[in-house]
Amino acid sequence: MGSGASHGSSDEPKTIAVFGATGLLGGAVARALLKDPTNYRVRAITRKPNNDKARKLAEKGAVIVTANMNDMESLEKALDGAYAVFLTTHYWEERNKEKEIVRGLNAIDAAVKQNVKHIVLNGSESVRKLIGKECNNLDSKAAIEEYLKEVGVTYTIIRLPFWYENFYGIFRPHKIKHGVYAIPLPIEDAAIDMICVKDIGPCVVSILDSPKQYKNKTIGLSADRMTTVDMAHVFSKHIDKQFISPKIRTKDYEKFNFPEARDLAAMFELYQKNLAHRDIRLTKKLNPHVRTFDKWLERKLYKLEEVLAGDKDNEFEHQK
Ligand SMILES: *[C@@H]1O[C@H](CO)[C@@H](O)[C@H](O)[C@H]1NC(C)=O
Ligand SMILES: *[C@@H]1O[C@H](CO)[C@@H](O)[C@H](O)[C@H]1NC(C)=O
């Protein structure tokens, strides 16, 4: 060791404060860290300390801390003594870009105040800058990235691709007629990057394990890359139904009648134009066990069939 980044005795486990620890992404990071108690202690930050997910993390050894990202005092308390922070922010709950940015900046300020050594951020490229269209849920994350890069703390930014888990929620295959389902992603003939959220956890652990290698870097993660035709093949291989690719255009998608349509159309336009660079080789280096979509679907069969059986005539509902 011997760099300025290490402090205290190097064989003490380091405390990592994980935001969104009861969510899908923060939860994956927390669980991956909990598998390495010799090196890490997990401080799970949540607004919902009494829910089941928080309890399960506590059973596995995490310390549950309640903090409100609008309240500096609670943030500073939550980050006191932490070596590193895994930071994610949410857009969909409030659908307010400015408020999401404020929460992200608050967390960064509190981390700096508490002398945290490394911040790993779930960031994003700015869709507005790249294609000239508003994408509130990603532009907010881009603004938080920009701030983090200037603030003078060591960081690693991860940029994520489409999650396989999205097929349970708003992007679940939509029933067209009996036994026939369409993959509702507006990417026409383009291939997009994808990953299983759980596989991101070990990637973040690898980043924290090798801070020198990944300091002040921006890393695009991906485990697989597919067109909707490829996805339809994989679905048909594992589920005894017909899957098709309707090749929806972003131009049409943005006019769909649900509140996220415009933001999501812009996001998919970014993906479709290949402007979001994700690196499968680097991702496999960070986590040699990342699953391809095929491998993931093979294991998830039961749950997906349930999702498809419950299909309520193309009703969009946001993933919780
Ligand atoms: C990372 O960049 C920040 C400035 O943005 C700097 O203060 C910090 O020392 C850098 N970290 C390392 C380990 O080089
Ligand atoms: C992380 O960022 C991605 C955008 O790259 C976003 O879709 C996702 O919701 C974020 N995750 C969390 C838990 O905030």
UniProtKB/TrEMBL annotation:
Keywords: Membrane, NADP, Transmembrane, Transmembrane helix. GO terms for cellular component: nucleus. Residues 14-280 form the NmrA-like domain. Pfam families: NmrA. InterPro entries: NAD(P)-bd_dom_sf, NmrA-like, NmrA-like_oxidored. The chain crosses the membrane at residues 16-34. Belongs to the NmrA-type oxidoreductase family. This is NmrA-like family domain-containing protein 1. It comes from Potamilus streckersoni.
